[in-house]
Write a structure and sequence with these properties.
Shape: globular
Order of helices and strands: EHEHE
Distance between the termini: 17 Å
Number of domains: 1
CATH architecture: 2-Layer Sandwich
CATH topology: Ribosomal Protein L30, Chain: A
Number of strands: 3
Strand content: 25-35%
Helix content: 25-40%
Structural class: alpha+beta
Number of helices: 2
């Protein structure tokens, strides 16, 4: 059975002076603090969310 791909997503830029949409996206990913990381399943929905605020995130494949 093949192992499911996962992404480690880390918030590397502050949410200060960001618009409401960007703040909601960060919250939807499960990130609350600067330099906090979450591990999520690699799927098109997560990839699309990352693409919207990619400049604020560090993404690694696990």
């Amino acid at each position: 059975m093949a192992k499911e791909k996962q992404l480690k997503i880390t918030l590397v830029k502050s949410m200060i002076c960001r618009n409401k949409e960007q703040r909601k996206i960060v919250e939807a990913l499960g990130l609350r603090k600067l330099h906090q990381s979450v591990i999520l399943k690699d799927c098109p929905a997560v990839r699309g969310t990352i693409q919207k605020i990619g400049f604020m995130l560090d993404v690694e494949e696990i």
